[in-house]
Amino acid sequence: MINENIYSSPQVIISDSESETRQLGIELAKRLVGGTVVALCGDLGAGKTVFARGLARGLGIEDPVTSPTFTVVQEYSGLDLDLYHIDLYRVEDASDLVALGLEQMVGNLSAVTVVEWAERAEDLLEAGGFEVKIECKDIESRKIEIRYF
Fold first, then answer.
1. Which of 59, 96, 99, 140 could serve as a FRET partner for 13 with CA atoms 20 to 30 Å apart?
2. CB atoms within 10 A of CB 104
């Protein structure tokens, strides 16, 4: 589903189910190296956490992955890379991001950092990652745009 030229041109993929969205996360995870940021953008209920679950599976993480809306950050140990799963839905401003230690997580070479509601932390997201925009088309279908930045 994800083409090999993902690093040079954005890709738009239509997912018709949660399992397809999760599979896209698994496929993207296979292309990630330590220090990579995956910025997830989309409305509430679009499928950001489903995509994050796929990333986790692709990194060899078997633990249940839930949305860290209330804890803000969840850490998972993978086979070769760990995963920092961050949800910025409840973050008010940039000072909250500093207090969370987001700057230390982003770019950690032993982990991949996935950030839900990433549009709230654009200043902290540097080159070397993927932006994944998920848009609901109908109850099951999602338009997923993946671009390297």
1. 59
2. 9
Its pTM stands at 0.91
User: How far, in Å, CA of 21 to CA of 80, rounded?
Assistant: 23
d(CA 18, CA 25): 11
Closest by CA position to 78, among listed 134, 40, 124, 26: 26
pLDDT value of residue 36:
93
What domains are defined for the chain? 11-148 (3.40.50.300)
Q: How far apart are CA 100 and CA 113, in angstroms?
A: 14
Nearby residues of 41 by Cβ (< 8 Å), 6 or more positions away: 48, 117, 118, 119, 131, 132, 133, 134
